[in-house]
Amino acid sequence: MKPFDPPILVTKPIHPNKDRILSTISTIIDSTWLTNMGPYHEKFEKKLRQFLNVRHISVFNNGTIALITALKALDLPKNSEVITTPFTFAATPHAIAWNNLTPVFADIDTSTMTLCPKSIERAITPNTSAIIPVHVYGFPSNVVEIDQIAKKHNLRVIYDAAHAFGTTINDQPITNFGDITMLSFHATKLFNCIEGGALVYNNSALHEKIYALRNFGIKKTSLKRGIIDGIKNKDYIDAVGINGKLNEFQCAWGIETLKIVNEEQTKRHQVAEEYNKQLSCLNWITIPKIPENTTHSFQYFPILCGDNKRDSLYNLLLKHNVYSRKYFYPLCSDFQCYQSLESSNKHNLINAHRIADSVLCLPFYGELSKNNCKKIRSICDIIAQL
Prior knowledge:
Blueprint lengths: L17 H14 L7 H14 L3 E5 L2 H11 L7 E4 L6 H8 L3 E4 L11 H7 L4 E5 L10 H11 L2 E5 L7 E2 L2 E2 L6 E5 L12 E5 L3 H10 L5 H6 L1 H6 L15 H10 L3 H19 L5 E2 L7 E2 L5 E5 L4 H10 L30 H7 L2 E4 L7 H14 L3
Parallel strand pairs: 2-3, 2-4, 4-5, 5-8
Antiparallel strand pairs: 1-9, 6-7, 6-11, 8-9, 10-12, 12-13
Helix pairs in contact: 1-10, 2-10, 3-4, 3-7, 11-14
């Protein structure tokens, strides 16, 4: 089989209709309101609330800044510990460290690849203040047991749902659980606004606080009175905030992309079904199963490779111009900046290391459903050569 030309990438971002988005961009330019939470910013938050069926949402310029802000908003004790998974992107523990908090790694469940509740319990100390579970690849964490643990030990819970846009459990949005949930709208995600993110929460008291933290600490109530009046007011800025605002262009992109995200999910579902059909006969490949009563986001398509074949498969696919990804490898606990942590000990993270050494994310995007998933069958033919 000849190498694919052009190459098959591991993912491709969906994008809105070009004529429509260019027309909107022209309108924004003519308005001269390019950023600072203008009309498209307000409309984008409203559309997201409706689409995701959530109570409060605050959009950000990216998911990392959103997660850093979520930790700040909960006023966790200085230098306290936050339990999280090593099987995640670097942004998760980095957000903890940037808040002068200590990441504590706990092991994962081998079926969902998310934080194991028993491992969380073992990691709790008198200095623990919060838990950041990650909904890996859109597979939901064990939210019921994590909620019970958090209540028992009086801990806050922030969910990293960068992969879980639209995921539901028993018809409930995944964002209904925990204190705050972070979403990512990066171009590689199912839903994107090129770069972006959001915080979702049910507590109304957090709304104005997050607003201020996202915007240099400027109080929303001061802005309502007007900038000049606000400057005279000593309470105009009452917190150490950052600049996490999302500009009008990307908000407009997000509004238009929301219109096609359901169609993209349907196409990805077809691609996933074809992968399952073609790969089920290979006994050295395990395909993680979507839990019952769960609506999956179809963010990635991971497989677990047995017989130490992961790296060989990665290289074989690359020879055919098929790009896969060892995602997440290496573990965050193996990064030099976290190696010295006691919780980074390999014996503490047996399951996470096992999964990280065998996981491979295959190309996964709606366009691959064309021609009755012909390219997927070709990719699986290559895989079957091993």
